[in-house]
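Fold this sequence, please.
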Amino acid sequence: MTAALWVGKTGLDAQQTRMSVIANNLANVSTTGFKRGRAQFEDLLYQNVRQVGGQTAQNAELPSGLMLGAGTRVVSTSKLFTQGNVIQTGNNLDLAINGRGFFKINLPDGTAAYTRDGAFQVNKDGQVVTSSGYILQPEITLPPSAISVTISRDGVINVQVAGETEPNQAGTLQLADFINPAGLQPIGENLFLQSASSGDPQEGDPGANGLGLIMQGALETSNVNVVEEMVDMIETQRAYEMNSKVISTTDQMLQYVNQNL
């Protein structure tokens, strides 16, 4: 009887974790380049009371066994890297990736990070940086006299300098991709780190080897679907209530036994 209490407790823990994932998705519905998370469950170990296939007679065996489950747990919170909507902003340094790939960012400690957030700016040295000031890789530096920046779909950056009739090429953007993007480690600030599960980054020019194309003057929005998250929230709430009811009912059964037997 007490086993049912612990099974119900694991259900409460799992649904509470799932609700946290949904809450984080909804909180980031307006975060540029955000990828929604999804809680994934697995059942726990089983108590093998009667082995399936065990012999009941010389020429007979059990067609099914007696296995008592120990509950559930959240085994992972994976990111879904589906394409978000692309909105036009008109800002020359706003870049969206249409397809696979990530922008490579250099963190202050020299670590390489990756992002889908293309809301770039320019620092005091003319370097293209993220909203947190981290430098885009390969490093792009714009001259102080630049009056316009044009970035082609394949990542070529041309800068129009005041007093010159022809634009100057300031560099080329590169993208990085991974065999398993879901294996990337999110660290906040719209950044991901490489992990053993993601594999090594495969860098290249936009549009080459399956990499996406660059869209200048646009940003990729979050891929969170508010309606879907609300439905998942209701489902989670109902599952939480049912597991709570399991604990309450089991407690009442134990109480009855204690008082009447």
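The helical segments are 2-27, 226-260. Residues 185 and 193 are 5 Å apart (CA to CA).
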